[in-house]
Amino acid sequence: MTELVDYRGKRVVVSGCFSGMGEATARILLDLGAEVHGFDYKDCALPLASFTRVDLRDEQSIDNAVGGLSGSFDALFNCAGLPGNMDLMDVMKVNYLAVRKVTMAMVPKLKDGSGVASISSTAGNGWMMRLATHLELAATPDFTSGLKWCEDNVDQIYECYSFGKEALIVWTMREASHLIRKGIRLNCILPGPTQTPMMPEFEKQAPKSLLEATTQPINRFATPEEQARPLIFLNSPAASYINGVALQVDGGFTGGATTGQLDMSQIAAGMGGETELQL
Ligand SMILES: NC(=O)c1ccc[n+]([C@@H]2O[C@H](COP(=O)([O-])OP(=O)(O)OC[C@H]3O[C@@H](n4cnc5c(N)ncnc54)[C@H](O)[C@@H]3O)[C@@H](O)[C@H]2O)c1
Fold it and tell me: Which residues carry out catalysis?
């Protein structure tokens, strides 16, 4: 198993390496012997092979960052994100449009047999209910046209956090069927509540009882490392036949909720009678 997740000498890019799951991912990859190149808009303290300051809200900044990387790469980890109480379009840019943009800009630099793993959320669990809308957005060819779609459909994206996370799942499933023809696998994880610097922002938006209800049935938050390790697995040879997957990393919440095993009353009350998740 150690050999299957062997990252010695592998060249990887981690976007969002300053804190939380991205920092944990970059740190573990360094421990595993990878050559780690980081992107963030805040300086990263880890001993990376290179760090590039990038503002993922800005297309030109992304082009400059990816353009500044030389050579070919084995893996891309899209870990950056913003909580839902930020500017609507900034959330759509960082959580969705930039993930698409960084991935597609990296494609010419990614080797045959490489992987891309991104972070969605249990908040994206409702993607099936508006699949047609998400497919329409996923079909926009680039950052600019995707942003125009968002601006023209503000009524659809007002719950920007869950909408963006749903959109990322659908885009991952759709694009994975194309990128695999270039030998690149594309997957994402759907974390449950995780103790990162983003958590206080979620706590401002939701009562404690609601957040606690979303930790059922494991009854604790994840650590950033518990999200980093599945990302690292997905981009390793151990996952060589896993493609287009949205992997739940939520301690059993989605499975329990789907099969009616959890107390959803706090969640329904917290969401005004609906059961949409915001983490
Ligand atoms: N914490 C949770 O409970 C939780 C649950 C589900 C999903 N997520 C998702 O996990 C991902 C990682 O978040 P986290 O919890 O580790 O939080 P975090 O705030 O610690 O990490 C987010 C990272 O993104 C970077 N970032 C934000 N905006 C940026 C920009 N414009 N340009 C460049 N970098 C930018 C930040 O500097 C930071 O390093 C996010 O996509 C988040 O939505 C978090």
Answer: 161
